[in-house]
């Protein structure tokens, strides 16, 4: 299940998550937290869903389907975060993947400032793994990150602080390689890939966390799921689709169609 916001442009959020689930042969369900008016270039408006309606979506899905893994994306407000955290406990969802969506690629804020505390105190302690990008990791650990060494230290601190696994993405660091750092208990792993020179990365974080959730639902161990999710996103970035003046990620890259 994905618990996230709707992206009217189709490249991120609920839409990206469901496309990723489908591509990886996992049946996807959803609970929508916000409706947005957005494109890859900008977020024009955000309308949050009433927290009680978010709860009803989660409960109805869990009453009808055996939800193996849930992932969260854009939660927007403290009230929605508290509702999701509480319903996760009630429904006994075994594995929760948290993508701590805070700011869109376009720069628009997707998490209210007073919601960060609720994310840290009420949702992350219930999660199995969190997937921050560099800027989100800076917020979660409370300091700037400008090197691979500092990214590793931040991943360790986040994992220890919230008692979960943390995979921190280094895509915003300089260099010809992109390194992701996984810290899970005492184990640390590095995942490296050549940097893809593309300005069209909208939805990459959503795709990664959704792919991670899908592979975990298929029974993969975390380290293998992270590696497979990274490979999935790399291929999706390397073979973008053509959609007007945009070149969004190709969630179905295995089919080989990047022009339709």
Describe this structure in words.
47% of the residues are buried. The protein has helices spanning 13-23, 51-64, 78-91, 115-123, 134-141, 148-162, 204-217, 222-238; strands at residues 2-7, 30-38, 43-48, 69-72, 95-98, 129-130, 165-169, 177-184, 187-194. With 260 residues, it is of the alpha/beta class. It starts with a strand and ends in a 22-residue tail after the last helix. It has a nine-stranded mixed β-sheet with strand order 3-2-1-4-5-6-7-8-9, with helices on both faces. The chain has one domain: Ribokinase (UDP-N-acetylmuramoyl-L-alanine:D-glutamate ligase, 3-Layer(aba) Sandwich). The protein has eight helices and nine strands. It is 39% helix and 20% strand.
Note the main attributes of this structure.
260 residues; alpha/beta; UDP-N-acetylmuramoyl-L-alanine:D-glutamate ligase; nine-stranded mixed sheet; 39% helix
Low-confidence stretches: none
Globally, the shape reads globular
How many separate domains?
Answer: 1
Tell me the total number of β-strands: 9
Strand ordering within the main sheet: 3-2-1-4-5-6-7-8-9
Determine the CATH superfamily: Ribokinase
H/I helix tally: 8
Tell me the Rg in angstroms. Answer: 17 Å
CATH architectural arrangement:
3-Layer(aba) Sandwich
Q: What is the end-to-end distance? A: 28 Å
Average pLDDT taken over every residue? 92
Main sheet record: 9 strands, mixed
Strand content: 15-25%
The sequence of SSEs as H and E is EHEEHEHEHEHHEEEHH
What is the helical fraction, as a range of percent? 25-40%
CATH topology name, in short, is UDP-N-acetylmuramoyl-L-alanine:D-glutamate ligase
Which structural class best describes the helix and strand composition?
alpha/beta
CATH class category label:
Alpha Beta
